[in-house]
Amino acid sequence: MPWKQRKGAFTRMHAFVRRAPVRYYSLTLRRRDSPGRLQLEGAIARGLGTFLQDRTEYFRSFDEVIVYYDNGQAEITRILNAVMNAYFLQVEFRRMQPADYRLFQAADLACTLELLRAKDADNALTKSDLFFFESARKLRKDYLKPFEAKRLP
User: Domain range spanning residue 143?
Assistant: First the structure.
């Protein structure tokens, strides 16, 4: 896909999600902070568990929690299954294709922006990132800052 077409699609998706009645939470971890795979899986599980524990009343107000996942990474699948079933009595997992669900694409956009935020904070934006967004300042001003209102406190 040509660069201008990708940029246009990204900008339209960003505008759509900013207006949609959705909120997100992103767990940001650095691999270098976890020396091994098991430590990283543990950090992910603790982060997800802490998030759910802090918002237990909200999530338990629903009869059922449905987790949509594309089964992309076996480790994440195991963590989601273990943590979600530890916190909730009724959890349903649905495998899906990302292209079929706008909400999944919105979640992917949120994760992408959080990754860019972390890279920007570490002064580690790539040449491709800077080319796509034109500059770190433009990324922060036009994409990251407007999206902050969507983040769960």
Answer: 100-153
Contact partners, residue 117, CB within 8 Å, separation at least 6: 28, 144
Q: Are residues 82 and 112 in the same domain?
A: no
**Where is the domain boundary, 76, 96, 116?**
96
Mean pLDDT for 54-72 is 86
Q: Would you state the structure tokens that stand for residue 96, as one six-digit string? A: 């899906």
pTM: 0.84
What separation, in Å, do the N-terminal and C-terminal C-alpha atoms of the chain show? 36
> In whole angstroms, what is the distance from residue 120 CA to residue 101 CA?
29
State residue 41's pLDDT score.
93
Query: Exposed e or buried b for every residue in 68-88, given b needs 16+ CB within 10 A?
Result: eebeeeeeebebbeebbeebb
99 pLDDT above the threshold of 80: no
